[in-house]
Design goal:
Number of helices: 7
Radius of gyration: 24 Å
Strand content: 5-15%
Largest sheet: 4 strands, antiparallel
Order of helices and strands: HEEHHHEEHHH
């Protein structure tokens, strides 16, 4: 995968990552050694998705300088599947979280990719082609699905549209 930030890129940019999160200029993103090894997201997103109920989270909030010193070990543990979420921020305030890609999928309720498939869980693509039995609906069918009042409204609109 190209364009993926490395561990060194993130280590050198931790204060700027927080600044972008605070300003709402970035969303969760993956980083790692040529493939997505870990995910960085805001603590708010982690909390909104029920992260504290899904994972054991310590009371410690690492400062950016502390995280910079430990980041390689954190990512190695994430890659090995042995690390837990790491909460960090400034002045003891939880602002961001680092998770393994598997933990991020669990947090969001996403499926794991097939074995051997490199997948960035922060970049989701969904099949949009119609299902085999799908067919287009016309306006009358949609109105029927909505109920008798919608059918009546549609008939009234058509009558008014046909007046000279």
């Amino acid at each position: 995968m190209t364009g993926l930030p490395s561990v060194d890129d993130i280590r050198a940019d931790l204060p700027a990552v927080l600044a972008r999160f605070r300003a709402g200029r970035t969303r969760a993103f993956s980083f790692g050694a040529g493939a997505p090894d870990a995910v960085l997201l805001t603590y708010d997103e982690f909390e909104d998705l029920g992260g504290e109920a899904k994972f054991a989270v310590g009371a410690d909030v690492l400062e950016p300088e502390q995280l910079a010193e430990r980041l390689a070990a954190v990512v190695d543990a994430a890659r090995a599947g042995s690390g837990g979420p790491v909460v960090w921020g400034e002045s003891g305030e939880p602002e961001a979280v680092i998770l393994s890609t598997t933990q991020y999928r669990q947090l969001r309720g996403d499926d794991e990719p097939p074995p051997g498939v490199v997948d960035d869980p922060t970049v989701r693509t969904y099949a949009t082609e119609p299902l085999p039995g799908s067919r287009p609906l016309n306006l009358d069918e949609i109105a029927e699905l909505m109920g008798p009042e919608a059918v009546q409204d549609l008939e009234e609109i058509r009558r008014e549209g046909n007046k000279p």
